[in-house]
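Sorry to interrupt, but I need a hand with the structure work. Can you supply me with one protein entry, sequence and fold together? No commentary is needed, just the two lines. Leave the record below and I will have a look.
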Amino acid sequence: MLGQWWMSTPASEKAWLGVGFLAQLMFSMRFIVQWIASERARRSIVPETFWYFSMIGGAMLFAYAIYRLDPVFMLGQGMGLIIYSRNIYFIRAHHKAVANGTASPDVPASV
């Protein structure tokens, strides 16, 4: 039954399913990197890569939600993208301040 459905599904739909699954993988990777970083530090931390995986996965899921015309999914991912963008901005601003000597490198940009 699944094979018959797959054979009758248009190529463009299969491509969007691929985008959706890849997007979900990217979005899930953020939890894996956060878990590993926290285990290594023996405390809860949020590494920079968490925000980059959030941004990439969120943007891909947002595109997928637009394709699916799902307003709930679009709103959820769209709001997340604002938060991820802001955190990436803070990270980059902190790195720039450290490079300029106006911030301490031992204060994490993302905790």
About this structure: The chain has a mean pLDDT of 87. The chain has one domain: 14-99.
